[in-house]
Specification:
single chain, alpha+beta, 2 domains
Length: 184
């Protein structure tokens, strides 16, 4: 038991040392590649750091030279700012929202991409074996609700809208509301 623990500690220390050495060497290489202004040459430099073979279209890393001293730093700064101004993904935008601070991805407040409600007519109302009622709409969607109280009938124009906590409400023409869940 003690030998196993000692072996695991030795492996962990060895891995940590190797990772520290690789990180230091990688940081120097990244800084060198970041200074290259030409996009193809910069990509070839990054490919060399990642130990990827260079494509035939990109020059080999041995011919890549650092930028000349006559090159203007304003051009490099403009290049960096244009890359930073590229549109961010929806997850990145959502993460920047102050309402989402400290929340996991599952907990974050996301805007729904779809409609907030739909209007349709009831094509069929069927009862299931366990007392649940299946409502088939003219759009082909099938929704399930607990039990039918008799206020719904075939041909009724209904509205289904989003409710709190991801629930959906079916509103009948007689102003009755039912909690429903989509099946198909």
């Amino acid at each position: 038991m003690i030998n196993r623990v000692a072996g695991l500690l030795f492996l962990a220390a060895t891995a940590a040392t190797a990772a520290t050495i690789a990180t230091a060497a990688g940081a120097d290489g990244l800084a060198r590649c970041a200074e290259i202004a030409a996009p193809d040459a910069r990509l070839a430099c990054y490919d060399a750091l990642a130990h990827r073979p260079a494509d035939a279209a990109t020059p080999p890393t041995s011919t890549v030279k650092p930028p000349a001293a006559t090159e203007k730093p304003a051009a490099a700064a403009a290049e960096k700012s244009s890359a930073a101004a590229a549109p961010a993904s929806a997850a990145a935008i959502s993460a920047q929202d102050p309402k989402n601070f400290g929340l996991t991805l599952a907990q974050q407040h996301m805007a729904f991409a779809g409609p907030t409600s739909i209007k349709a007519r009831i094509d069929a109302i069927n009862s299931g074996p366990n007392g649940q009622t299946y409502i088939v709409l003219d759009s082909g969607q099938t929704w399930i609700m607990g039990e039918n109280d008799g206020w719904l009938s075939k041909g009724d124009a209904v509205t289904i809208k989003r409710a709190a906590l991801g629930a959906f409400l079916l509103m009948s023409p007689s102003n009755h509301s039912y909690h429903v869940r989509r099946v198909r």
